[in-house]
Write a structure and sequence with these properties.
By secondary structure, this protein is an alpha/beta fold. It has helices at residues 55-64, 69-80, 117-125, 167-193, 227-238, 278-290, 316-322, 330-348, 363-368, 376-379, and strands spanning 6-7, 18-25, 32-39, 88-89, 100-106, 129-133, 142-146, 153-157, 215-225, 242-248, 267-272, 295-299, 313-314. Helix content is 31%, strand content 19%. Helix 1 crosses helix 2 and helix 4 crosses helix 5 (227-238).
């Protein structure tokens, strides 16, 4: 099997320990489903959640990767089905009277809510509440909702582009669906902050009322990877409450040209070396030419999956199946990605992140951490230092 598989996610780097829980709102496909990452009160012996939450997701990954469910899904279940995320499952939420800033996270094509646990965990450790959506536009590897009748599960499999249909129109419909879900997620947190009763329909679900008075909705951002990256860009158009976006290796193809002039807020594009095309980067530059605060950086030695948890799977089998690693160490790639995102959010959400004494106070200091790296000229001097 190419060596034992395990998920070696780095521990939290920020001052907060992180808990997580699954949230499902509503009994129809028009509801919302996400994994919530949040600062928590540590507790001994806390359960760690499975990275692949159900066997059905192995079937979805098999379908998306073009392999037979008959052999690939059981193999994936054996290889990675027991991997756990180093987080406290349903740990007590740590209240914050000043309010945590909020990130709505959008996954990539063929992914789902748990595949970005590494970056979501790091953001939460620095004092963000992160809602990692599982989109219901048939772009996820697999997802489901619970009907009101005896809490029956209705599964939504991944859908390929229908034969005879142009990919742009199919994906464009999906990206609008996804961006609307991001907007609805922000509205959900507004409702929670108003004290509205929002039931989590999952059995023994996390109580959303504990978030009331602890989220600063004036400091909301949207973030995503690949298809989720362009979803984040479109969400800025659809929802004025998002202050900025972080797009990880955004797949710009599905966004119609007429919308580029409509993107009103700054975007940080963090690209990998091997995925982007000149056409895609040109679209990003169209946005940066209209907003001086929109920036583009590229991490050398990285591949598209470097910004997912797949990069942290040890053993050869899964890395061969998913082409998950570049030449850059995945922990270093995560550090660069999270530090760049945090610095950008610190500036545009006007939030001051606590410092562990390691060059987080200003963006020039972040750059100094990377002196000597082959891409330092892409980053140093990228932004002015924020005012304290």
């Amino acid at each position: 099997m190419g060596g034992e598989q395990s998920l070696a996610l780095p521990p939290e780097k920020g001052p907060h320990r992180v808990g997580c829980a699954d949230i499902m709102v509503g009994h129809t496909q028009q509801g919302l489903f996400f994994r919530l990452f949040y600062p928590c009160v540590p507790r001994d012996g806390a359960e760690r959640p499975l990275w692949i939450p159900r066997y059905e997701y192995c079937s979805g990954l098999a379908d998306f990767s073009g392999h037979s469910r008959r052999w690939c899904a059981p193999l994936l279940s054996i290889a990675i089905g027991s991997c756990r995320v180093p987080l406290s499952w349903k740990a007590p939420f740590k209240p914050c009277s000043s309010g945590y800033p909020l990130i709505i996270f959008s996954h990539g094509l063929g992914a789902f809510r748990t595949v970005y646990s590494s970056i979501c965990m790091q953001m939460a450790s620095w004092g963000f509440v992160v809602a990692a959506l599982e989109h219901r536009d048939s772009s996820a590897a697999m997802t489901y909702f619970c009907t009101a009748e005896a809490v029956r599960e209705q599964w939504i499999p991944h859908q390929q582009v229908p034969q005879g249909q142009k990919e742009f129109y199919f994906r464009n419909n999906q990206v609008h669906h996804r961006a609307n879900e991001c907007a609805r997620a922000l509205q959900l947190f507004r409702d929670i902050s108003r004290g509205n009763s929002i039931p989590n329909v999952l059995p023994q679900g996390f109580d959303l009322s504990v978030l009331k008075d602890s989220i600063d909705l004036a400091k909301a951002a949207v973030m995503g990877h690949s298809f989720g990256g362009v979803t984040a860009v479109l969400a800025l158009v659809k929802e004025p409450g998002f202050r900025c976006a972080v797009a990880l290796d955004a797949w710009m193809f599905p966004l119609e040209n007429v919308l580029y002039p409509e993107v009103p807020k700054p975007v940080l594009f963090i690209n990998t070396e091997k995925f982007q095309t000149p056409e895609s980067v040109a679209k990003m530059k169209r946005l940066s030419s209209r907003n001086s605060q929109t920036k583009i950086i590229t991490i050398l030695g990285s591949v598209h999956q470097s910004q997912t948890d797949f990069a942290f799977l040890t053993g050869k089998l899964i890395n061969r199946v998913f082409h998950a690693r570049g030449t850059l160490d995945p922990s270093k790639c995560l550090d660069i990605t999270s530090q760049a995102a945090l610095a950008f959010l610190q500036r545009h959400l006007a939030t001051w992140l606590p410092s562990p004494g390691s060059n987080w106070q200003c963006l020039e200091d972040v750059g100094k951490c990377w002196l000597g790296s082959p891409w330092e000229s892409c980053w140093l001097g990228l932004f002015p230092a924020p005012a304290k």
